[in-house]
Amino acid sequence: MMIGYQRSDGRKGIRNVIVVAYLVECAHHVARRIVDLSADMDVHLIGFPGCYPNEYSLRIMKSLCVHPNVGGVLIVSLGCEGFNRKALQAAVAATGRPVDTLVIQERGGTAATIAAGVKTVAAMKASISNTPRFAIGLEDLVIATVCGGSDGTSGLTANPAVGKCFDRLVALGSTCIFEETGELIGCEQIMAERAVTPALGEAITACVAKAANYYTVMGYGSFAPGNADGGLTTQEEKSMGAYAKSGDSPISGVIKPGDQPPSNGLYLLDVVPDGEPRFGFPNINDNAEIAELIACGAHIILFTTGRGSVVGSAISPVIKICANPDTYQRMPDDMDIDAGRILNGDATLDEVGAEILAKITALASGGRSVSELLGHQEFILTYKSFEPVGPACLPVKARRA
Amino acid sequence: MTPKDSSQLILLHEKDNVLACRRKIHRGDTLLIDGTPITASIDIEVGHKLARVDLGPGDVVLKYGVPIGSITQATRIGEHVHTHNLKSDYIAITTRHSTGEAAQP
Fold it and tell me: A45, A73, A193, A216: least surrounded by Cβ within 10 Å?
């Protein structure tokens, strides 16, 4: 049975993680040591490296610290950085979660702060160990998908299998999110036709055009050398393969990083910053995308890979779905699902889609993904800038009863 | 359970003029392309593409039933289609939409 932790905002978590959050690179080592010495698979490190303040990063850190999978937060500040630590602490405290801030410059330096942090985490762990748990359903879950290390098999097996799983989830009342408009270039027209309103369709087309412009200015599309080794030749070919993850359900809205989908259904996450390109590539690696999906409330990430990614994430478990049978043979211990069987004729897309759904249910019932068991808790957050979404992006206002 | 398919190739959409490799193809293998036997001229890896018909420069390549780029040099049926003979049209197309004229690649 799927069991969740009830949170004060009405959302339900499938994990009860204590997050240790550093607010500048200068506090990273201290925070890392607190996590290491706590030696607990449900104590996770997140953080922001920059010293200059940034509205986006504050918003994402707030969203992550009040994520339904998070039970308590320890903030680690050097003391002089630009990050608004009081606003972060207040946002967490407002939810009733235990939260504390350690300022290294006020605590007497590295060793004293680490010692204090380890004690604080242990006390928090004890205080959240009896958080009430209740039965939850698929309608309580937000499931997001991302692909990384794609090759020519990704669009034949793992991605369309996730699409089948997404179709099932949407039909069962879950909220699903797909993303990376830079990897959907060339798919904008077919995507727009799936929008629940024509105005939303135009908003989808506009956000892909924004991505195309952004990547043109950057001088690179979202296309790595490994993609070509794996048989993908062009950006638009890769896009079609990536697009298959979204399945066939109607698209209910477009959200931006840190927005919570207002209803169940399928949402597109627009990850490309607004305005003139300022801070470099929209997402410098797969974990930057995963962190944003989790900031949108994702309980579980479905990560498809052809070349063979090994990553997991802080806060929410990652299910790795291997598209390529040869990759699976080389690194089976890093994969939760062997979607390459579809190529051999040993399974259908529907069967693998059902297997992914069963894995989601297992993780929401206390099971662990392979990346969780291997200790993968990657996390990265960098500078960005966004405008709020326009009214056309969210035609569905409230969660269906 | 689907029956085992012995073919090395997948046709993803009936409009497509390329086929995707589901199993490694070895030089000398006989491939059946729409019923026509073709001898593979080189090894082709899983996930790569090969021509379903003879293609020439400027031909638009269709995969999943949609354009994924244009052919840059004559490519015979059964030959590998990849970066050496297929180029993206995406930057040019996108810029044409936004400025009204084609951009230099």
Answer: A193
Domains, in order of start, for chain B: 9-99 (2.30.130.110)
For chain A, say whether B2 makes contact (Cβ under 8 Å): yes
pLDDT digits (tens, 9 = 90+) for A1-57: 899 999 999 999 999 999 999 999 999 999 999 999 999 999 999 999 999 999 999
| Same domain flag for A194 and A102 | no
Tell whether A155 lies on the interface with B, counting CB pairs under 8 A: yes
Supply the range of the domain harboring residue A381.
138-393
Domains of chain A: total:
2
Let me know if residue A398 belongs to a domain: no
Report the 10 Å Cβ neighbour count for A381. Answer: 23
Predicted confidence (pLDDT) per residue in A234-284, tens digit: 888 888 889 999 999 999 999 999 999 999 999 999 999 999 999 988 899
Neighbours of A24 (CB within 10 A): 22
- ipTM confidence: 0.82
For A243, the closest chain B residue by CA position comes to B64
Domain's final residue, options A82, A101, A134: A134
Measure the CA–CA gap between A276 and A289, rounded to whole angstroms: 20
Q: Is A352 on the interface with B (CB under 8 A)?
A: no
Within a domain: A216: yes
pTM of the model: 0.90
- B69 close to A (CB below 8 A): yes
In this structure, the answer to whether residues A212 and A104 fall within a common structural domain is no
Question: How far is residue A232's CA from residue A120's CA, in Å, rounded to a whole number?
Answer: 49
Residue A401 in domain: no
Q: Are residues A198 and A80 in the same domain?
A: no
Task: For residues A131 and A16, give the distance between their C-alpha atoms in angstroms, rounded to a whole number.
Answer: 8
Q: Which residues lie closer than 8 Å to B34 by C-beta, 6 or more apart? A: B52
Based on the domain organization, do A159 and A105 belong to the same domain? no
Q: Which residue has the tokens 């105005």?
A: A199
Tell me the per-residue pLDDT of A369-385, one tens digit each, with 9 for 90 and over.
999 999 999 999 999 99
Contact yes or no for B90 and A221 at CB 8 A? yes
Question: For residue B67, which residues of chain A lie inside 8 Å, CB to CB?
Answer: 186, 236
Q: Considering only alpha carbons, which residue of chain A is nearest residue B97?
A: A209
CA angle at A78 for the pair A72 and A79, rounded to the nearest 5°: 100
In a domain, A400, yes or no: no
